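Minutes, project check-in

Agenda point 3 was the complex the collaborators sent over. CS summarized: two entities, 675 residues total, and the question is how they sit relative to each other. Sequences were read into the notes so everyone works from the same version.
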Amino acid sequence: MVEHKKNAAAYWKANLKLIWISLAIWALVSYGFGILLRPLLSGIPVGGTDLGFWFAQQGSILTFIGLIFFYAWRMNKLDKEFGLDEE
Amino acid sequence: MSQFAINLIFVGASFALYIGIAIWARAGSTKEFYVAGGGVNPITNGMATAADWMSAASFISMAGLIAAGGYANSSFLMGWTGGYVLLAMLLAPYLRKFGKFTVPDFIGDRFYSTGARLVAVACLIIASVTYVIGQMTGAGVAFSRFLEVENDTGLMIAAVVVFMYAVMGGMKGITYTQVAQYVVLIIAYTIPAVFISLQLTGNPIPPLGLFSTHTESGLPLLQKLDEVVRELGFQDYTADVSNKLNMVLFTLSLMIGTAGLPHVIIRFFTVPKVADARWSAGWALVFIALLYLTAPAVASMARLNLLTTIYPAGPTAEAIHYDERPDWIRTWENTGLIRFDDKNGDGRIQLYNDVPAFQETAEARGWAGNELTVNNDILVLANPEIANLPGWVIGLIAAGGLAAALSTAAGLLLAISSAVSHDLIKGSINPNISDKGELLAARISMGVAIVVATWLGMNPPGFAAQVVALAFGIAAASIFPALMMGIFSKRVNSKGAIAGMLAGLISTVVYIFLYLGWFFIPGTATFANVEANWLFGISPLSFGAVGAMINFAVAFAVSAMTEEPPQEIQDLVESVRFPRGAGVATGH
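CS then shared the predicted structure for the full assembly.
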């Protein structure tokens, strides 16, 4: 029981860490590159406009997809490593 | 064959398909009615979620909004997709593990309070009913334009079709019709986009065409578009915005609003395992992205197409004669969504931005005001006609627009009826009701919800656009924070959760009413809805994110001052965090 509790706490900590990293990237590409940091990226041309515009209309969506699949893959692996997956 | 006959065939065939699925997928138990039996494949569920989520607003209105606003309206693209990251990491897997039928089920159990459950039911019903009005009016527009029937008749047909598969099949029928509707709507959306991208840039993939070279001018497409709109007094299409705080908060409100919409969340209760809920969110976003990556391309290309139609020799030369206008302008004038007013009496159509800064140029050119008013909503629907595509593409667009509206309407109606039959009737009024009795109650509430939605669609409260903001604001400020705290904090107790939900809900609703009118009654707004009046420049549409922060702050503060939740509730939180032991969703 104690062993199980320790295990569970470590699993939850690993999950939270993964969420923090993913959400940092989530915020960086949309609120960062797509909105607030756009003036900084204005020197990088992309097809008639700048990188910030690309992130706002395409790049952030593509990153979101990558993030969810990365999270799902890592978490489903963690479930098994910690023996907490569904039988 | 006439265009009318083609439209009829496409719409009729798609409806026959939905009804066929309804007869095949009847629900025999509440488990089938609420969560489709709990055995839906994650990719199938992803596709159904995409159709469930992409409404008439996504299909019909969004490209028009982006075309009109350019970069500034990128919030819709990021906001309506970024919410899935939150769903996948913060809500869906844990709520799937919890394993019950509805969103108020979780809030009621986790905060061990019927009061909390009822607040959640109220938020869910207000958010979903306001949202469903938009779907019914969208379906009405598509019917009256493509099938030449009265708006009300169109709505009745739509209601009967939804009734057939939603009442008979519940979530089971809705899931499989949504899959079919996704296929119809994505084909309808992308085919015209591919043709237009080919015509303008030579690139058959619209998202790539957006950043390619405009064949005719040899300039990058977006640069060409910037030049054309600038000549007509509009802001550059790619121009940056100055009020970044508002853009950030608006995007955030759309993201957490998306993650908090109950009809989207309950789709994740239908997959077999917690791991599937995670994959399913990814698949949902893939299917959504097919449309959301195409939309900005459609937006910029359609805007350029429209302006070159009006100014065939370029924006600095003469506009076309009204008598020589293309057929699609004639057809859409009949609906009142395009209006022409020859203000300077020269018989030509001058379309430009009628603002003081551009007045001098306009007067020098002999213009006496903008003469063509084009409703944003027609952009996608008229796209095939603007690009001279064959008649079957127009029929496809008609079927696609209806698929988008009906799939979302059905999802919302299920969320409403399950809240009534499961949370109100079984949860508080008659807990001893049998499974059969509850199933009947669910069917009756679904029927009533359809009648109410159809009636509201026929008599839209003249504020349909604002109420969608209200739906997102409520989902963002009340439902999302309560669910998140229920999973990620063991300390938040029932008093904190109820106080938080009410604080978030009331602050958001009051802020919206201050600028858009109390209860949306025209003329009752306390302040004019202009940026100068907004608190810190935050628009009423962006306030959901602030309401959510208020909710979090109040919930934590009140919980810290009151007692800890009982041990069994802390154990419940512990159990939703770990996938082991999740059965299929149940009502008990």
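Noted in discussion: The longest strand of chain A covers residues 45-46.
Follow-up: revisit at the next meeting once the mutant set is ready.
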